[in-house]
Amino acid sequence: MKAVIAAGGRGTRLRPITWTLNKHLIPLANEPMLFNALKKISAVGVTEVAINVNPGEDMIQEVCGDGSQWGLKLTYIEQQGGALGVGHILFNAADWIGDDDVLLYFGDNVVLGSLQEMVDRFNAEKLDASFAFVEVEDPERFGVPVFDDSGNLLEIEEKPSSPKSQFAQTGLYIYKMPKYMEAYKNITPSARGEYEIADINTHIIKNGTAGYGTMVGWWKDTGTPEALLEGNQLLLNELPVEEALIDDTVIKLDDVRIQGRVKIGRDTVLGRNVLIRGPVVIGDNVKLDNVYIGPHTTIGNRSEIKNTEIEHSIIMSDSTIETSSKRIVDSIIGPKATIVSEASSYPRGHRLIAGENTYLEL
Predict the structure, then answer these.
(1) Which CATH superfamily hosts domain 241-344?
(2) What architecture is the 2-224 domain classified under in CATH?
(3) Whole-angstrom distance, CA of residue 2 vs CA of residue 16
């Protein structure tokens, strides 16, 4: 079995962060979210992995390298022909996949559990396709499975206005590649000009053998800022005790208090009056002084934070924050951002340089 990770797209719902950063490299638990996919794939013994990227992409290649740190051999395949839909991704990689079985994994999905049960079902039941569903509050945003009264899977409807179930198709699929290609060649693009993965799956369901399993509480699509924060929270909640370590090079003053599971990188300086309440992950070369860092917060490398309270937020690398004891919550702060108090300059007032799609509360 090989694996293909979908890491294209433009991340428009996550702008302005994604103007300069590929959304699949946004840090969750202080490492690029794409690493979560690579770890999960490696854990089930798949070693050959292709990452589907936008034409001209080079940032993902620089960050992920050859995959050896996860025991993987990575190949990068540029998406050809423009935005032709998720269903086109495996067709675009068909020469690389050959006739091998293939796991398709959306790179912006956060999975907390193992993929082993899904892989084992596919192999044991000799399926043409295996899917993973999860119960959600807003199924109209996803591909929705339709079942008969006996629970048999009949089809997948793409973003239906009136969903026939409360389940959503997650970004996890396993296929026999020849069957996938047969389905691809027998569907037509949708009204928006895309090869819909729901149509391919429905064709396989009706003309082959498809199986499915359901997930409870361990999958998240991170397509919106709110979902990103929730994905960060989920991963921090799973931070193992043995990984919640404070590097030996960390400098701490006497009035530093650390509570719960907290991971702190090398050469970080914890100054006066610092309270950190986990789960929290703090990177390398960070400087904290007179701060409260609350649960479900990550702080990127080389950031400097003073006189501030932060909780349930993602602070990316090289950020500078000093707010005269203001409280920042439920926030995503991009790399090299600067946030200072209005009291630090005259005339008094809120001075903003805000890009497209910026959201602020003052």
Answers:
(1) Hexapeptide repeat proteins (2.160.10.10)
(2) Alpha-Beta Complex (3.90)
(3) 34
